[in-house]
Write a structure and sequence with these properties.
Blueprint lengths: L1 H21 L8 E2 L2 E6 L8 E7 L4 E5 L13 E7 L21 E7 L5 E2 L4 E14 L2 E13 L4 E5 L17 H5 L1 H23 L1
Parallel strand pairs: 2-8
Antiparallel strand pairs: 1-7, 3-4, 3-5, 5-6, 8-9, 9-10
Helix pairs in contact: 1-3
Amino acid sequence: MRKNLILLFIIASTSLLFSQKAHADLIVPGTKSVDWCYEISNIDDYPNYVFVYNEERVSDFGVINQGDCFIFYKIGLAGIYAIPKADFDESELDEDFFAENNPKLIRSNIQLDPYGSVQWDDPLDKVVITLEILSLDPTSLDIQKSNVTYSYLDGTSEEKPFQSQDAIPEPSRSNFLPGWFMDSWFIILPVTAIIGIGAVLLIRKYKK
């Protein structure tokens, strides 16, 4: 029995270490990603224009329609553009389309960031950030973040308005366990396992 417990601990510790190494490039240990996207609430107010987004560092781009919830590469920074509908041909939408010398494109004032990861026990499931077009003319496109909708694993949701364009409102609900535990879980778990195994071995020793 004693040998089996020690072997089980070795296997568990090894699995934990390899798991951390395998996922190091994907997500920080102890955290998880959530579904997130952006939407523009009032595209239909500008029927003579087409709206597109572009993340030039990873060649990620696309058309934004009313009701679309669009997403881009998670380490990227995306910009939004408008172009007169009469000048737009979707078959021409490629990397060169967003060249700086394209006179048809109207770049917006806003740059979009992906939503970050959360602690693995966080009840947050999805984040939708809603944008609003404030003004559009042949030389400028003014967009602002209006609100964010947080959806949780239990099916509930809440909407919060932006008080500042530089800071996203915090969700009302967060992870169940304290942050210091989440940051140190890969140390705490093996130590707890060692203590548990040691306790079992001591109990067995004194029972003999």
